[in-house]
Known about the structure:
There is one protein chain. The protein is of the alpha/beta class. The chain has one domain (5-356): Alpha-Beta Complex (2-enoyl-CoA Hydratase, Chain A, domain 1), CATH 3.90.226.10. It has helices at residues 29-43, 67-76, 83-100, 117-120, 154-157, 165-172, 178-184, 196-204, 211-219, 232-235, 237-244, 249-257, 262-271, 276-289, 294-311, 313-323, 341-345, and strands at 5-10, 13-18, 50-55, 60-62, 106-110, 113-115, 129-133, 138-140, 189-190. The strands form 2 sheets. Strands 1-2-3-5-7-9 form a 6-stranded mixed sheet, sandwiched between helices. A 3-stranded parallel sheet has the order 4-6-8. It starts with a strand and ends in an 18-residue tail after the last helix. Residues 14-348 form the Enoyl-CoA hydratase/isomerase domain. Keywords: Hydrolase.
Amino acid sequence: xxxxxxxxxxxxxxxxxxxxxxxxxxxxxxxxxxxxxxxxxxxxxxxxxxxxxxxxxxxxxxxxxxxxxxxxxxxxxxxxxxxxxxxxxxxxxxxxxxxxxxxxxxxxxxxxxxxxxxxxxxxxxxxxxxxxxxxxxxxxxxxxxxxxxxxxxxxxxxxxxxxxxxxxxxxxxxxxxxxxxxxxxxxxxxxxxxxxxxxxxxxxxxxxxxxxxxxxxxxxxxxxxxxxxxxxxxxxxxxxxxxxxxxxxxxxxxxxxxxxxxxxxxxxxxxxxxxxxxxxxxxxxxxxxxxxxxxxxxxxxxxxxxxxxxxxxxxxxxxxxxxxxxxxxxxxxxxxxxxxxxxxxxxxxxxxxxxxxxxxxxx
Length: 363
């Protein structure tokens, strides 16, 4: 184990604890490798009936990948072709695939901030997942804010949210609450943060055949404390579907600008600050991902992330948000009017032939 990931077995429960609190548990390459190794070991261990992943901090489950590392590694190599960057994204996406198809129940306690790479280690497949949110959950795929796109399988799980919610979340990068996450199908149950340790103890002592049902049973008394029908996304779903159902980002923004509701005006204001290019790339990504398998989505995203660092928009976004903290990125191009189809299409051009793709073995 890396110093930033703790692993133990309690009863029949394999317990993984992300433990890099000063960095809000942002994922390093070592953490990705340690998670993968432990999940592979427990996959073959008959004594482990389910896996639960949590954080040692009440501030964040996982705030994403280590973007300072992305910036430094990308800057160090012309064209962003750092070997460490290549390894990180190939191994992170392979981990996302492993989690999605894990053969045992996979329970994620999404307490606190859950963003980017944190979503990737929480959004398992429908046959094994149990995603828990709390009153402290703040969830987002905020990549457009740093000149990137919603990766770690975002093309798959965002494209399968109700209506146009996924397009809204991906193109704007906005943060949502626990109730919103339940409404969007990005979480399964709500449990108060104060009850999480009791939940873990209960699961460790559980003797039944399905720990996912045990989680549902534990969460049942708290159902009324977090109503997805009363969420912001639920209230705004007609506006989201009408505006984000358009075929391109300029049309989406025009529809929002023509809507006088506070939600539409706030959303339009947010979009004017995002990377014009990456909003367009993200919308195309989600349109493609709607008809693709998990493996196909991850292979597409691996192509896209290579192109992203070649292009350099992500390096400028990280500089403005994290390094210099001037919050004044110089996006290129600087307006939606300057984004053309050829520039968007370039992000989807495979850098490798199929037989040499780093994720060619994903099934």
